[in-house]
Amino acid sequence: MRPRRWKAALAALVVIVVGGMAIALVQQISPSSPSQVNAAPAGEGGVPAALVAPRVTAPEPAPRERAVAVLRGLLSSPSPRIARAAAIGLARMCDPGAKAHLVEVTATESSEIARLENAYVLARCGDDSGRQALVAALRNERRDVKADAARHLTALGEDSGLSFLHSLLGISQHRLGAAEALASRQDPKAIAALKAIHGASDTEPADRLRAAIALGLAGDASVSGELRAALADPRFRPAAAAALARLGDAAARDALVDGLGVPSLRVDAARGLRRLSPDLDAGPLVAPLLDALVTERDNSQVSAAEALLVLTGPAADAEKP
Asked: CA-based, 20 to 30 A from 52: which of 30, 258, 283, 314?
């Protein structure tokens, strides 16, 4: 009897050991405890994450794209003034919608000066009707209208306004203004007038500095020291910086960067920075302007957006007044 009991006990032990091994094997293959599950986690609706299409996040629009979007949105502003300003800013890149808006509002614009500005912006984009409107305005009875038309034509590189501006050089109260308008063309008669004003002992200090700034815009580096000193005068700091930028003088940079923070100065400051550095890396400069697109009033948004177009567009945009 004892051998049989021993064999039975041995058989039972074998069963227990084999059973334990089987259970362990089953748990490795198909675990019952949630903590041991290695399957892919479920996605939305219980679908395994591996089968759920990944969400695609749209890339952040580039600064130029954001500026264009803001200007196009403001074209629909209930304020005619804001919509027109947005169109002028957007027309810097000759946007068809902006040009169409300017053509439309010019037909009902009561201000002759505003109509001339619209015409200039259109002519700058190659619209001949805008150019013809400026030429026609040279025959206007009002001197200020003729002067504005002549300035716009001169900025376009046209000669048709030269004779009228030259005639203003002979009128004392208009001499400096006419010479300033002609300075960027390095017009000999204007430069002679500016040097005379700048060198005259009886010229008011403010007029002497205006003449120096105009000479700088004409490319006369002899006034550089005077222009650098003028950077300390808040009244003349922006204009002096613009003239120094024309001369390629890096002393202008800080004043121009500061100008980006002032809505009324932004576009000219951006133009000066591009003129100073045609291959400018605009990256460090755009953050405050992008913030202005969101936080500031609509008229300030327009200036921020146009400044972004100048900073991030072709270098030739810096030469468009």
From this structure: 30
